[in-house]
Amino acid sequence: MTRNPNTEPFSRHHRRYDDWFERHRAAYVSELLAVRALLPREGRGLEIGVGTGRFAGPLGVQFGIDPAGETLSYARGRGVTVARAVAEALPFADAVFDYTLVVTTICFVDDARAMLREIARVLKPERKVVIGMIDRESPHGQEYLTHQAENVFYRTATFYSAAEVEALLKETGFSRLVWVQTLSAPLSEIREIEPVRPGTGRGTFLVVGAHVSRERCERRG
């Protein structure tokens, strides 16, 4: 598989990446709780961009893919069945998952539309995608942009706003969108778990849940 410059840092610095979640434990748990608020409680799930399994493992997501092969042993150790693959070409048949999870991955994929079309393809009709993301337009999202060139992981990332992701979801056949948010303080100041609030506009970390339309699933057949 050809190296993607967006994922190369995760392969090269996989231990440093995985350690981030321990160094910023309160922020990590806040993000977990925000994702859990919208994630289905049962069914066959897939995390796209599973990385070291820091979300799929504790949230009980059974399957995961990632192009950064060096991270997959961590995810496997956290109980996730993993495969090395890219988001734009998922190695699964049509309509096999009850939900998919995408956490801080949309900013790294080469083609977000292609990823969402693939997600729609592998989801069963009217089932759910849950996307966690850094909101480019939040006050602290702007800080990420200001210091982006200094961050080994986010140097080549493309950050999105909530409005842009909402438009992409609707364009690719998703509807019934629900948003939640957390992390309203700068990362360096977060010492306690932050609350999960509805909507957008206050939190740096946003989560959106959306359902693939039956019409979209029928068209793929």
Q: Which terms would index this structure?
A:
Rossmann fold, single chain, 9 helices, eight-stranded mixed sheet
Describe the structure.
The chain has 221 residues and is of the alpha/beta class. The chain has one domain: 3-Layer(aba) Sandwich (Rossmann fold), CATH 3.40.50.150. It has helices at 8-12, 14-23, 25-38, 56-59, 72-77, 112-122, 139-146, 162-171, 214-220; strands spanning 45-48, 63-66, 81-84, 97-103, 123-134, 174-182, 197-198, 205-212. The relative contact order is 0.17. The mean pLDDT is 90.
Provide the low-confidence segments as ranges. Answer: none
The counted number of beta strands is 8
Report the order of strands and helices.
HHHEHEHEEHEHHEEEH
CATH-derived architecture: 3-Layer(aba) Sandwich
Write down the overall geometry.
Answer: globular
Helix content: 25-40%
Query: Major β-sheet, in short?
Result: 8 strands, mixed
Average pLDDT rating: 90
CATH H-tier superfamily: Vaccinia Virus protein VP39
Distance between the termini: 29 Å
State Rg.
16 Å
* Structural class by SSE content: alpha/beta
